[in-house]
Amino acid sequence: MVSGNGHRAHGFSSVNFLDSDEILAELNLKGSETFMDAGCGDGHIAIKVLNDYIDEGMVYAVDVYDASIEDMENYKQKNNIQNLINIESDITEGIPGVDDESIDIILMVNVFHGFKASRRLDEAVTELKRIVKKDGKIAIMDYKAWDVPNGPPTQVRNSPEDLKNLFKEHNLKMTYLNEQIGEDIPEGKSHYLIMFEKE
Ligand SMILES: C[S@@+](CC[C@H](N)C(=O)[O-])C[C@H]1O[C@@H](n2cnc3c(N)ncnc32)[C@H](O)[C@@H]1O
């Protein structure tokens, strides 16, 4: 699938229906963070961060889909970007080359429900916990657990409460929840954004 920025993605890119500035404003980035767009797809969020939010920091773009990472590598070379690291990897198998406790903020947009679908929730959280710094943040933006036509099947959606319980089992505490974010749909706002930190 080719997205709005001409890059390939293995699922629906959120570029045409979510406002990346609305999402990134939630993170209060200062510009020197090590940021990871985990499940970057066409990379539109990682690119936005590089262009508008991070100057001295580092951006990681991670995806299991080889074509997404190939396109991000081409983007990096073409634009001579020094502070972008692209990694082709399955998050639930471990992300090679990323040190323990080295990432300030990990953002996953429309990715986390996939771990429920593949029954790899615990494996995903284990890896995210390994790489996030002690005072770092894991931010998840995903579809509300509603039975509505747009988005993933209802049975793979996680509610904020589901995630709170899952992360608690891994000694990660919820530090932020916004349930008024995303697209306007007849039922209300389509998404929530939740953040976790180490206890
Ligand atoms: C629906 S797309 C969202 C892409 C992007 N975050 C966005 O908002 O446009 C989900 C992405 O997550 C990636 N993905 C799914 N499971 C993954 C895994 N286990 N490890 C790494 N990437 C994964 C897919 O390849 C796909 O690019």
The H-and-E topology, N to C, reads as HEHEHEEHHEHEE
Q: What structural class do helix, strand and pairing data support? A: alpha/beta
CATH names the topology as Rossmann fold
The CATH architecture would be: 3-Layer(aba) Sandwich
Task: Give the full name of the CATH homologous superfamily.
Answer: Vaccinia Virus protein VP39
When the domains are counted, the total is 1
> What is the overall shape?
globular
Overview of this protein structure:
With 199 residues, this protein is an alpha/beta fold. The protein has one domain (14-198): Vaccinia Virus protein VP39 (Rossmann fold, 3-Layer(aba) Sandwich), CATH 3.40.50. The protein is built from six helices and seven strands. It has helices at 20-25, 44-52, 66-79, 112-117, 121-131, 160-169, and strands at residues 34-38, 58-63, 84-88, 103-109, 132-143, 172-185, 188-198. A hairpin with a 2-residue loop joins strand 6 and strand 7. The model has no long low-confidence stretch (mean pLDDT 97). Bound molecules: S-adenosylmethionine. The site of S-adenosylmethionine has 24 residues, from strand 2.
Features:
199 residues; alpha/beta; Rossmann fold; 7-stranded mixed beta sheet; 6 helices; binds S-adenosylmethionine
